């Protein structure tokens, strides 16, 4: 059960016997036991003033304005003291037995070094003295940029070559687009695994003459009309860079 602690609680007492002691008024500069919450237990110390050889410490509680005593140590060999007539003081204190129990609890406290947790550990914030090393499940860094460097990711996380998904956004400043490890030397752009754009095909020269991109009827088109449209296609492919002189 939790104990109640407070500073400067000391009262006079004129009661006698080995049972409950009726408590009096606070001594000068001190407070009374009326500040102890109902039902709370506390450590007490009783000292005989008229009979200084009589003393007792223990764990108690209040009952009808009296101290209900459970001795821990006393001038009667640890038993309840049958206090004689005369003045005595009763103080709210911390018994040495409490410190002894605390020392034992701390001595038997498990060392967390190498401890294994079976369930999740949830905290609102965790502060570490140093960056958590990669070998311990961290990144060895306290910033995103340093973490990418330590993990060998550079400026962009590397994804699986067969599972790269980019939704939205804009890719700018690309000097080249290539896929390694396939049959197309230099790479290729593929859609659903099907090559749709590859490297430029060299050896083409631009045609001369008129061009046309108008519609035509394949059953009546002339050779000149077809030539104009072939030139338009060659011009457009060179402009796009799919074919060219080199």
End-to-end CA span: 89 Å
- Per DSSP E runs of 2 or more residues, the count of β-strands stands at 8
Give the rounded overall mean pLDDT.
85
Rg value:
46 Å
Overall 3D shape: rod-shaped
Please give the largest β-sheet. 6 strands, antiparallel
Content of β-strand: 15-25%
Structural category is alpha+beta
SSE pattern: EEEEEEHHEEH
> Helix fraction?
10-25%
Number of DSSP helices?
3
Summary?
By secondary structure, this protein is an alpha+beta fold. It is built from three helices and eight strands; from the N terminus they run E-E-E-E-E-E-H-H-E-E-H. The longest helix has 18 residues, at 223-240.
Structure in words:
By secondary structure, the protein is α+β, with helices and mostly antiparallel strands. Among the domains are: 10-100; 187-246, no CATH class. The chain contains 3 helices and 8 strands. β7 (189-191) and β8 form a beta hairpin. The two termini are 89 Å apart.
Tell me the layout of helices and strands.
Layout: E1 10-13, E2 21-22, E3 42-48, E4 55-63, E5 66-74, E6 88-93, H1 96-107, H2 144-150, E7 189-191, E8 194-197, H3 223-240
Antiparallel strand pairs: 1-6, 2-5, 3-4, 3-6, 4-5, 7-8
Keywords for this entry:
246 residues, alpha+beta, 18% strand
